[in-house]
Design goal:
Layout lengths: L1 H17 L3 H18 L4 H11 L5 H24 L5 H7 E3 L3 H8 L4 E5 L5 H8 L6 E6 L5 H11 L5 E4 L3 H7 L5 E6 L12 E4 L2 E4 L3 H9 L2 E11 L2 E10 L9 H16 L21
Protein name: Lysophospholipid acyltransferase family protein
Subcellular location: Cell inner membrane
Pfam families: Lip_A_acyltrans
Length: 294
């Protein structure tokens, strides 16, 4: 009961915070940056090691600059994500703009469904919310459930505010089979870390052997869906664009792992261009090939 009460109190507090104007939220973010980076040192060692391994060719000074930029952006990401709880549709449309929404109808007009790979890059939560506004056809967001059921329900309700259907990772195959005869646009985060017993493939990503899910490739071949990348770019503080980048139009003609390599390395290129916007505090490289029996 106490845990439940604490969850509800936390959710109510987040809702109140979400009602604050953006300018005040960014003031909070600036203070939060000083606290988590200079005082608490939240996962600084994880970020530093990830940057060292990913960019060994860069100088220590360059990597330290990226590190600070990352933590400053991370605090912006936190307050922007909280703001998504109550943000209006008009404000969302102004702050997360598609650059080529016509691509959706282009493929739907051909009777093709779409599967998009996305990364933990820029504000993926704001992009997920804006995704619901992109089309009136079936929109599917595949998510990894949070351990706290109450907060998991909160964020699912937020993501579904504009019509998207939320599907947990474990239910993805069943859902895609159920809707395979309908036009659909599905988004899956491609840089999640598989648990050890689910690892079937390693690739080289950011200079390191990296375990990746093969789900996007399997689903695309199963329903013959066009594979795109859901690219997000930061224009300025609080403002973004997203672009639908075609990767594979004929998935059934591809070779093994071709689709996976395409979306993984598109994300890699994006990170290399502006590394401060990727989720460096995530322990992405927990598993090594020599520890896994493939």
């Amino acid at each position: 009961m106490l845990r439940k009460a604490a969850s509800y109190a936390g959710i109510f507090f987040l809702y109140l915070i979400s009602l604050l104007p953006f300018w005040l939220l960014y003031f909070i973010a600036d203070v939060l940056y000083v606290v988590i980076y200079y005082l608490i040192r939240y996962r600084v060692s994880v970020v530093r090691q990830n940057l060292t391994n990913s960019f060994p060719e860069r100088s220590d000074a360059d990597r330290r600059k990226i590190e600070k930029q990352y933590f400053h952006y991370l605090t912006d990401l936190v307050v922007e994500t909280v703001k998504m709880i109550s943000v209006s549709e008009s404000s969302l449309r102004k702050r997360m703009k598609p650059t080529n929404p016509e691509l959706v109808q282009h493929y739907f007009g051909q009777g093709r469904s779409i599967i998009a790979a996305a990364g933990h890059y820029c504000n993926w939560e704001m992009a997920a919310l804006a995704f619901g506004l992109l089309t009136n056809e079936k929109r599917v967001i595949v998510y990894k459930p949070l351990q706290n059921e109450d907060f998991n329900r909160l964020f699912n309700n937020v993501r579904a505010r504009f019509g998207a259907m939320l599907v947990s990772m474990k239910q993805t195959l069943r859902t895609m089979i159920a809707i395979k005869n309908e036009l659909s646009f599905s988004v899956l985060v491609s840089d999640q870390t598989p648990v050890a017993h689910e690892i079937n493939y390693f690739t080289t990503f950011l200079n390191q052997p990296t375990a990746v899910f093969l789900g996007i490739e399997k689903l695309a071949k199963m329903i013959d869906a066009v594979v795109i990348f859901y690219r997000i770019d930061r224009v300025k503080r609080g403002y973004y664009t997203y672009t639908l980048v075609p990767l594979i139009e004929q998935p059934k003609t591809t070779t093994g792992h071709e689709i996976t390599e395409a979306h993984v390395h598109y994300l890699e290129k994006l990170i290399q261009e502006k590394p401060q916007y990727w989720l460096w505090s995530h322990r992405r490289w927990k598993h090594r090939p020599e520890d896994i029996n493939l």
